[in-house]
Design a protein that fits this description.
Oligomer: heterodimer
Largest interface: A-B, 45 and 47 residues
Shape of chain B: globular
CATH architecture of the largest domain in chain A: 3-Layer(aba) Sandwich
Number of domains of chain B: 1
CATH superfamily of the largest domain in chain A: Response regulator
Mean pLDDT of chain A: 89
Number of domains of chain A: 2
Structural class of chain B: mainly alpha
Number of strands of chain B: 4
Low-confidence stretches of chain A: 1-11, 26-38
Distance between the termini of chain A: 55 Å
Low-confidence stretches of chain B: none
Radius of gyration of chain B: 22 Å
Helix content of chain A: 40-55%
CATH topology of the largest domain in chain A: Rossmann fold
Largest sheet of chain B: 2 strands, antiparallel
Strand content of chain B: under 5%
Number of helices of chain B: 14
Shape of chain A: globular
Structural class of chain A: alpha/beta
């Protein structure tokens, strides 16, 4: 009995150990394999890595979308070692070597956001689920950016925002997986206000026409905050639907409102239409309160200036970047883009091109496409040579901090593209604010 | 007072556009009994006639832009300016008025082709079938335009002479009532076209037969009159009216392929409010809704009823449908 017990006990102990090891191996092996296989969504297999370019190809911001897509295609070319390399030649703190990313050739798929949040989410979802996109980037609307950023955070895919200017993108709606290179309305207000004071004085009455969605509200709030601090009064702030087309019913009340400045918180096609119609109604020729009536467009782009034609001349605004900048990075990008397409890039194109390179560089630095590694590489990343001077991706809110340009519609253009004149480069210190000011929580990386 | 006058003017110019589109729509419904969802597309096609005329007039020679040194850029100089100098520039400046002349035969042909090629096969079908096929046609037309002209709005300028604004208030001893010339012209143009259509229907034998046919198609047919042929021409006429409305609207709103759909919904509301098939109803409702939309956009109204400017037209349509289902001037 005791022998049996001893034998049983010995065997049992040995068996238990063997079984434990075998069991652990059996249990662990698939886990390791599974983890290896599904460590993060759309881990690139084979020789290519696929990026998803989600841009407005129709709708109010279709002009910007078309230019964004051109920039993305150029960035892919440069990442794969084709063309003249563009900003890869001027970027500092660079890990990229110009032969793809982590040895893989960069491929891409595209989607149409239609400048609508639901359509943008659907196309991003399609690119992630069906096309295997490892990263989503693009867009020209903050409503779209916030919606797609949230989706990407939910599924665990990096989102490198395109043109989005609302504070919310890296404020109350910021996400761990989302990064914005473009500036925001807080920075526009801080940069623009001193110039407005210098040009128009501090005794002005403003009337806002505002695109009725997150970006419009954000810009209206920031411009009011900074202009009222100068001593300006706000007569009215009227919300207009996105893509309204005919703004005449909103412009006619401005004529006799007693306001002497019209602030157009519109962008893209809306801004072209509202500005053109405001000029048609004779606003720029009016004298109100003993002062010349003025129009301000806080967010400017060359594409909009092109659409608005003569009407843009002399009008002040801010911009993230302009092709006329003479730093090495801007020149390299303009040369490369111009040679490819025959005209210079817009600010939308610039931010999208830079975002693509920054993402690729972060992957290269991290040595992985795993979003958590990429996020870690991007957080606090400092770089230069990409058109905006020394820039930092602040870790606390994933917002890039850099100098901000104040521009004016060029009254004496030297070429068909010379539509905006840079009147001030506002230093980063003047537009910086604490991350806690705009609220929001980044959340955690889950991979 | 000045603010109110401005909003009334604004309402009249918006109403002019609504009335012109709705007039064609109700004309087709009143004669052929067809609910034409492609009518908005005809408005859009008219606008693109103006784009095409501008494109033809500005066919250009590419000249290297020497001011750009970073890359090879080219300036485009229209051949008309190269050949005829200032006179060439003047012709380009008048592209919209020229487009009006071009649009009349082009839109007539498009209207006739649409009616003969597709719509006539659906006369005896249910309204649901007519709506589906014409809506499908509208989508096809806008996709064709998108494929050829792109998705982006194309800016078109009014002639320089009428590009500015006029101080209307000074005529009435008021200050600050300034209104763009082109919008005033648009209002006058729409009133002239509406008057022309009514004169055509009431003062010509052709129009008299058409009106008789609208009342009693069978009896007119029994008199040996080919009423169908006349109705086909009326379809073409409706296409011309919608097209002209589109051409004239281009300096106000840069046309894109989707503009027809934006106006289609509005014009249906106008027709419903005015009374299906009633021509005076469509015109009256067009102007009424234009003025209401403009009036309810005033800050004094919006501060008590935020967002009312967005829904007022549809609110009126709901009330009319509830209280007077046949519309303002429709018949039982």
């Amino acid at each position: 009995m005791s022998d049996e017990i001893k034998k049983f006990g010995t065997l049992s102990r040995r068996g238990f150990l063997k079984a434990s090891v075998a069991g652990a191996a059996v249990t662990a092996a698939p886990t390791i394999l599974i983890n290896k296989a599904h460590a993060y969504i759309n881990e690139p297999k084979g020789g290519t890595v696929t990026l998803g370019f989600n841009v407005p190809q129709t709708g109010a911001y279709a002009d910007e979308g078309a230019d964004e897509l051109r920039a993305y295609k150029l960035a892919v070319k440069h990442l794969n070692g084709e063309g003249d390399g563009g900003m890869l030649n001027t970027m500092t703190n660079k890990a990229l070597t110009g032969n793809g990313v982590l040895g893989k050739k960069v491929a891409y798929v595209t989607g149409d956001t239609q400048t609508k949040s639901d359509a943008a989410r659907a196309s991003a979802k399609r690119m992630i689920e069906k096309d295997g996109a490892i990263m989503i980037t693009g867009g020209s609307s903050s409503g779209v950016a916030v919606a797609v950023q949230s989706l990407c955070h939910e599924v665990g895919v990096i989102f490198m925002a395109g043109l989005t200017h609302s504070n919310d993108t890296t404020g109350k709606d910021k996400r761990k997986y989302g990064f914005r290179h473009f500036f925001n309305t807080e920075m526009s207000g801080a940069a623009l206000a001193p110039v407005l004071e210098k040009e128009f004085g501090n005794d002005r009455v403003a009337y806002h026409l505002t695109a009725d969605y997150t970006w419009g509200w954000s810009q209206e709030g920031s411009i009011k905050k900074y202009t009222e601090a100068l001593g300006w009064k706000t007569k009215a702030a009227v919300r207009t639907p996105l893509g309204a087309g005919d703004f005449s019913q909103y412009i006619t009340p401005v004529l006799n409102s007693g306001a002497d400045v019209l602030v157009l918180n519109h962008y893209g096609k809306d801004m072209v239409n509202s500005l053109t119609q405001a000029v048609q109604f004779g606003l720029r020729d009016k004298m109100v309160n003993g002062k010349q009536f003025q129009i301000v467009v806080p967010l400017f782009s060359r594409l909009m200036a092109q659409g608005a034609g003569e009407n843009i001349k002399g009008i002040y605004g801010s911009t993230n970047w302009n092709w006329s900048l003479t730093d090495e990075g801007s020149r390299a990008f303009v040369k490369s883009f111009g040679a490819e397409y025959g005209f210079p890039p817009s600010q939308a194109a610039h931010t999208c091109y830079v975002q693509t390179l920054l993402y690729a560089n972060a992957c290269q630095m991290a040595g992985t496409f795993n979003p958590c590694g990429v996020i870690e590489a991007l957080e606090g990343f400092e770089f230069d040579g990409m058109g905006n001077g020394p820039t930092e991706y602040r870790a606390d809110d994933h917002q890039c901090f850099k100098d901000v340009l104040v521009v004016r519609g060029n009254e004496n253009p030297s070429s068909q593209f010379d539509l905006l004149k840079v009147v001030q480069v506002t230093p980063r210190a003047q537009v910086e604010y604490p991350a806690s000011m705009l609220g929001g929580e980044l959340g955690e990386c889950r991979a | 007072m000045e603010a109110l006058l401005l909003q009334v003017l604004n309402g009249l110019d918006k109403g002019g556009a609504y009335a012109l589109i709705a007039l064609g729509l109700t004309l087709v419904f009143g004669t052929l009994g067809v609910v034409n969802f492609a009518h908005g597309a005809l408005f859009m096609l008219g606008a693109f006639v103006a784009v095409s005329v501008q494109n033809v007039l500005t066919i250009s020679k590419k000249v290297k832009d020497e001011s750009i040194t970073f890359f090879d850029a080219y300036k485009e100089t229209p051949y008309l300016e190269i050949w005829w100098g200032d006179f060439g520039s003047l012709i380009i400046d008048f592209s919209v008025p020229i487009a009006i002349l071009v649009a009349i035969p082009v839109m007539l042909l498009i209207g006739l082709a649409m009616e003969r090629g597709l719509v006539r096969h659906f006369y005896k079908r249910e309204h649901a079938d007519q709506i589906l096929v014409t809506f499908g046609l509208a989508i096809v037309l806008q996709e064709i335009v998108k494929a050829n002209f792109g998705a982006n709005p194309i800016p078109i300028s009014a002639p320089d002479a009428v590009a500015g604004s006029v101080d209307i208030g000074s005529m009435f001893g008021l200050t600050g009532v300034v209104y763009p010339w082109w919008r005033i012209l648009y209002l006058c143009f729409s009133l002239a076209v509406i008057a022309g259509v009514f004169a055509f229907l009431h003062m010509t034998t052709f129009g008299m037969v058409v009106r008789a046919g609208m009342h009693d198609r069978e009896t007119v047919g029994l008199l040996g009159i080919d009423i169908q042929r006349r109705f086909t021409i009326v379809f073409g006429l409706a296409a011309v009216v919608a097209g002209l409305a589109g051409v004239m609207y281009t300096p106000i709103l840069p046309p894109d392929y989707h503009m027809g759909m934006d106006f289609l919904v509005l014009s249906f509301v106008v027709v419903v409010v005015g009374g299906m098939g009633s021509l005076p109803g469509a015109v009256a409702a067009g102007f009424l809704l234009g003025i209401l939309q403009s009036f309810f956009s005033m800050n004094e109204v919006k501060q008590y009823l935020p967002g009312i400017d967005q829904i007022i037209i549809y609110l009126v349509a709901v009330i009319i449908l509830l209280v007077r289902p046949r519309g303002l001037m429709g018949k039982d």
